Amino acid sequence: MGKIGIYGSSFDPVTNVHLWTASTVAHRCRLDKVIFLPCSGKRKDKAMKTSDLHRWNMLQLALEGNDKFLADDYEINQEAWNVYTYYTLEHFKKKYPNDEIYFIMGADLLVDIADGKWKYDQELVAGNKFIVMAREGIDMLRTISRSPLLRNHDDGSTFHLIDKGLAMEISSTYIRDEFSKGGEPRYLLPDACYEYIKKHSLYQ
C-alpha cells in the first residue's frame, strides 16, 4: 500500500513554492506520490488569468524529471457544477484502491470547512484524511477545536498538521502582478515555465 497526496490549486502559474511545498510535504509525510490537480477554469468561484491549456502545459513542464510528482486533469475535464472536493477524492480512491489518499490543503481551507462553506462537508471529513499546511495568522488546532464537525473526526490520523517552515507567502498572484507591471519574477517559478510565459505573452 502506498501513500498519495492530492494537491489541488489553480496553478496560475505553478511556482517554485508549489514545488517546494509538495516536496516538503512528501518528505515529512512519507508520501510515495503527489498528484498536482489543477482546477477547472469553468468554476464560478475562481477567476483564472489564463486558459486551462496554458496552465496544464506549464504544470507538465514544471514536473518534468520528478518521478514522485504527477499531474492529473480530472477536475479540468469536469463540468463546473460537478466539481466538489468530496467527489474528487472519491474518484481518486477508486482510481487507487490499494493506496491511502490524503488531501493536501492550506489552513485557510480548514477554516472554510469549519465555517461550513464546503459542500458535502460531513461526508468529506468523515471519509478522508487531510494534510494541512500552516498559513500565517491561523491557529490550526484552535480551528479544529472550535468546529464540532472537525473535532469529532479528529482521531489522531484524520488531520496531519504541518507547521514549521511551510508558511511561505510568495503566490501566483504576486508573480502575475510582477509580469503585468514589467517586474522580474524569474527565480520564483521554474525556468521552463518562465520561458513559456514569455513566449506566449501571458499575464501581460
From TrEMBL:
<dbReference type="GO" id="GO:0004515">
    <property type="term" value="F:nicotinate-nucleotide adenylyltransferase activity"/>
</dbReference>
<dbReference type="GO" id="GO:0005524">
    <property type="term" value="F:ATP binding"/>
</dbReference>
<protein>
    <recommendedName>
        <fullName>Probable nicotinate-nucleotide adenylyltransferase</fullName>
        <ecNumber>2.7.7.18</ecNumber>
    </recommendedName>
</protein>
<dbReference type="Pfam" id="PF01467">
    <property type="entry name" value="CTP_transf_like"/>
</dbReference>
<keyword id="KW-0662">Pyridine nucleotide biosynthesis</keyword>
<keyword id="KW-0808">Transferase</keyword>
<comment type="function">
    <text>Catalyzes the reversible adenylation of nicotinate mononucleotide (NaMN) to nicotinic acid adenine dinucleotide (NaAD).</text>
</comment>
<comment type="pathway">
    <text>Cofactor biosynthesis; NAD(+) biosynthesis; deamido-NAD(+) from nicotinate D-ribonucleotide: step 1/1.</text>
</comment>
<keyword id="KW-0548">Nucleotidyltransferase</keyword>
<dbReference type="InterPro" id="IPR014729">
    <property type="entry name" value="Rossmann-like_a/b/a_fold"/>
</dbReference>
<comment type="similarity">
    <text>Belongs to the NadD family.</text>
</comment>
<dbReference type="GO" id="GO:0009435">
    <property type="term" value="P:NAD+ biosynthetic process"/>
</dbReference>
<keyword id="KW-0547">Nucleotide-binding</keyword>
<dbReference type="InterPro" id="IPR005248">
    <property type="entry name" value="NadD/NMNAT"/>
</dbReference>
<feature type="domain" description="Cytidyltransferase-like">
    <location>
        <begin position="6"/>
        <end position="177"/>
    </location>
</feature>
<keyword id="KW-0067">ATP-binding</keyword>
<keyword id="KW-0520">NAD</keyword>
<dbReference type="InterPro" id="IPR004821">
    <property type="entry name" value="Cyt_trans-like"/>
</dbReference>
